[in-house]
Amino acid sequence: PGAQREADVLLRLDLLRRRDATGAVASVRRMATQFERLAAANAPAVASSSVADGCTPGALLACAYPDRIARRRDPGNGRFLLANGRGAVFAHPDRLAQSDFIVAVDLDDRDREARILLAAAVTRDDIEFAVGEQLRTVDRVEWSSRDEAVVAQREVRLQQLALQETSLNPPPAEAAAIAMLQGLRELGTAALPWSDAAHELRGRVAFARARQLPGAPAGGWPDLGDDALAAADWLAPWLDGITRRAHLARLPLLDALQLRIGADAMRRLDALAPTHLKLPTGSRVRIDYLDELAPCASMRMQEVFGLATTPRIGGETPVTFKLLSPAQRPLQITRDLASFWQNAYRDVRKDMRGRYPRHYWPENPLEAEPTRGIKRRN
Q1: Could you tell me which of 355, 354, 358, 322 has the C-alpha nearest to residue 340?
Q2: CB atoms within 10 A of CB 12
Q3: CA 67/CA 160 separation, integer angstroms
Q4: What is the pLDDT of residue 373?
Q5: Kind and range of the H or E run holding 297
Q6: Is the dihedral of CA 248, 254, 256, 257 positive or negative?
Q7: Where do the H-state alpha helices sit in 188-339?
Q8: Which of 229, 225, 195 has the alpha carbon at shortest distance from 210?
Q9: pTM of the model as a whole
Q10: How far apart are the first and last CA of the chain?
Q11: Mean pLDDT value across residues 165-193
């Protein structure tokens, strides 16, 4: 009376072993004798078997309640996970709360986590004895958001309970790639190692899609937008050995994008949406497909003297020219070079002659010789 009720079955068994058999103890002993007689009469082979000789009470109880075998979740908090998937907790401090495994004989299921009222400690050997034929080995390979990595483990499971885990290193390649793809969908395409060339290729393909340029692969020019890239499994063949976010730095993203487009379509793309534009001076300037004025290119105004009209790509799209001063500052933005020479150039020339008097500002730019560097005025 007044003592804290503990859940350990072994305390009850110790009472039953005492010599003084009074009250409830005597009643239990009489009931046990009746069960022994019934067993001998109805199943003599079982009653005389020595299979259970030397087994712990926990092992025998695990035979009767395999779905209530439980594993401790975290040290010190008395919380356990049952084989049937339910959570269970000791309502009061109990010595069994320190056990790695228990079998919960009696539970109060009224709360979200069941309260453990009666239990016994068990070992891995006890569980193997009681339910060895029910154990199964499962390889679990999945993406860990916390670690930003693929986690691969081999588990020994009883129903929904993992009894033992060992790391798989390296993880199975196919399963690891599937898990890494899930991680990429979570991280987004910003986690990929985007180089300037990869960004540029993305812009060129977007230009080809928008203009419906000929020469597209079967199904049309691919969508290389964030949502499309994140939803597809196109990177799977490139993920061998890549199992965490940090590994993505060595992913050959440009090669993967080019393969997604296809070799024939890439040749057509190079012809219709080239990476560079050749100027009258022989210089090659990069065409920007990501600028809001795309496609556009920047160059000093002196490099396009003599160029009568704006070059076009994709058959009909004029390149936006960002014409710069000798100091690389913007002077004019135009998609109609012929109109600029005829109209606005006169005012630009007047202003530039005052700012850069030693530079070449011809009166007739169409008849002037283009230059890469500084060509002083005569």
Answers
A1: 322
A2: 15
A3: 9
A4: 66
A5: strand 296-300
A6: positive
A7: 196-211, 226-231, 253-261, 263-272, 337-339
A8: 225
A9: 0.72
A10: 116
A11: 93
